[in-house]
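Section 5: illustrative case.
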């Protein structure tokens, strides 16, 4: 049995964390799906004539994308919730053969879909800008 410097002989390490990382990305994807599903059914709540819930869910997905990138320190952390949100929201926006839809063509529906799309893309762009591996290489001090 080979020993690793700094580790006692016979102890098991946690490995390199690939499974944990993959699990975190999967949870970020599920979080995006949940945000899209919940938002698709709750977007029409309003304060007077202002579609407050639609705007809140749109901003929420942008914030989750940025926080996902920050938490994982990789752009993929910001991309996964956006992909989940897009899949859930746009599947629920499609009409069924009977003609019914979940997200209607109203002001609140447009704010939810278009605003959420813009905020998700903005969150992904921020994640790519701040935590891309190429940018991380630029921040390393030169010796």
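Designed sequence:
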């Amino acid at each position: 049995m080979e020993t690793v410097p700094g580790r006692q002989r016979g102890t098991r390490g946690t490995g390199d964390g690939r499974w944990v990382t993959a699990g975190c990305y999967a949870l970020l994807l599920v979080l995006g799906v949940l945000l899209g599903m919940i938002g698709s059914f709750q977007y029409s709540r309003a304060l007077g004539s202002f579609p407050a819930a639609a705007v809140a869910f749109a901003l929420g997905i942008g914030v989750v994308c940025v926080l996902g990138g920050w938490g994982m320190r990789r752009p993929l952390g910001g991309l996964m919730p956006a992909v989940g949100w897009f899949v859930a929201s746009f599947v629920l926006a499609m009409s069924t053969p009977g003609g019914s839809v979940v997200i209607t063509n109203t002001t609140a529906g447009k704010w939810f879909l278009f605003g959420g799309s813009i905020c998700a893309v903005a969150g992904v762009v921020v994640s790519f800008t701040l935590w891309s591996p190429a940018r991380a290489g630029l921040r390393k001090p030169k010796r």
